[in-house]
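Sequence and structure are no longer studied apart. As an example, we show below a sequence and the tokens encoding its fold:
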Amino acid sequence: MKNYTVLGLMSGTSMDGLDCGLFEISLTTDNYLNWEFIDYTTVSYSKDIRESICNALVGDEALIDAVDRKLGKEFSLITEQFIKGRNIDLIATHGQTIAHDDGVSTRQIGDVQYLKKIFQVPIISNFRQADIKAGGNGAPLMPFLDWLLFKEYDQNTITLNLGGVANITYILKSGKRSEVLGFDTGPGMALIDESCQLFFEEPFDRDGVHAAGGKVNQEILKELMAHDFIQRIPPKSTGRHEFGRDMVKQIIQRFPRISPDDMIRTFCAFTAKSIAENLNKHLNFTTSDCSLIINGGGVYHPVLMEDIRNSTKISNIKTSAEIGIDPDMKESLLMAVLGVAKLEDIPANMPAVTGAKEMVVLGDVL
């Protein structure tokens, strides 16, 4: 079993910074994962970088290419400062998703040539495309790691990742790969974060203070819950093109008299309720025989966490920190594991999740 020292880089749908995780990882062809944490940090993006990413979401090809290079340079600078001369065997980077159409196309930016030039190790990226070519949605990617981590648990396990969007994985206690389910449920922190930026020029609702000062607007909540994506049957994935700045602006235009705190409180309720509705509609579980493990930035928002507890009615809810996985670190660990899977030629997509016709090896190597 070969051990790799791997750097996993993740820039997620929150678009707020680069997660850098350094791990020692081994993965066998019969899907036995052994991993050890070495170091981790999140480096927040400057306002300029964040605005560049936002512009690339709606920009023309020339602008996207320019931001691709700009972000690639930023990734390499952040990585060089994080690694500090330590030896690594490979780098696995997700890049920043700027477009994704389930089963049709996907695009991540952050030119990997700059990382290659500095580190001279295999750089692995473009993890979604092979699944799309195999007839899948190309997303979500997290269920592979969740299955590796939790397939030997003695009870049914739901994992919930609260990044910019919310996605879940359901691993039955049988541990069978073919029975794993996973999909995006809708917004995670995106609508809350975008509201804070638009109303207060704050990156997020720290400690849930704005949500705690607001009240749920039932009219808006009812309208949001009727959104096509919330009602769609899996497999499915989404992003800021559906649950991002444009949606917040549209709601503000339609309901100009709502207070900022009420808006944020309503988005909390919507996020929690959309998660609960998707769990209840698409997973066969009972609240007493299942554990819910939550990771991602959303675990630090007390109002949202309480809404999730009340909406799902699952009694056994933990954050991933309670089982030894830093809630912020998990996505960079995913990247690192996917990178090792690529070098070891191990299929890492989950056809039961994405709808792909077959298991395939994910990623491109530079």
User: Anything to note?
Assistant: The chain has two domains: 4-137+329-365, 142-314. The radius of gyration is 19 Å. The first helix runs from residue 47 to 58. The chain has a mean pLDDT of 95.
